[in-house]
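Hello Y.,

Per our agreement to keep a running log of every chain we model this quarter, I'm adding this entry. I've kept the format consistent with earlier entries: sequence first, then predicted structure.
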Amino acid sequence: MLKVHAQKLGDVTILHLQGRIVNTGETKVLQDAVSSASGFGAVVMNFARVTGIDAGGLGVLLQLREQLQASGVEFRLMNVTLLVHQVLEITRLNSVFEVIAEADVVSLRSRPQVEVVAEAVT
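Predicted structure for the entry above:
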């Protein structure tokens, strides 16, 4: 089960993910969360609680990245776990996805306001 909790920090949306990112119906909640964040300047996905990812999940991430960048929205990953980091290296997607430190989110923000905008569970 993939859980997504969205948090607004100025014009940045942080999507806190929990569970596995696999190509099942569960990725729909992630796609919906990203679609609702399309009006923001940046979307950051927090992978601190991601326990696994498969090829289909990587494909979904690539689609979401392309969709956001086509809309002029920056896309970043944060707190990537060792397992996900290894998958990104093996697939050479570590050169495609920008991984930032939690402290770097501050530089993406334009306003210090903190507000929860959505929470979804599948």
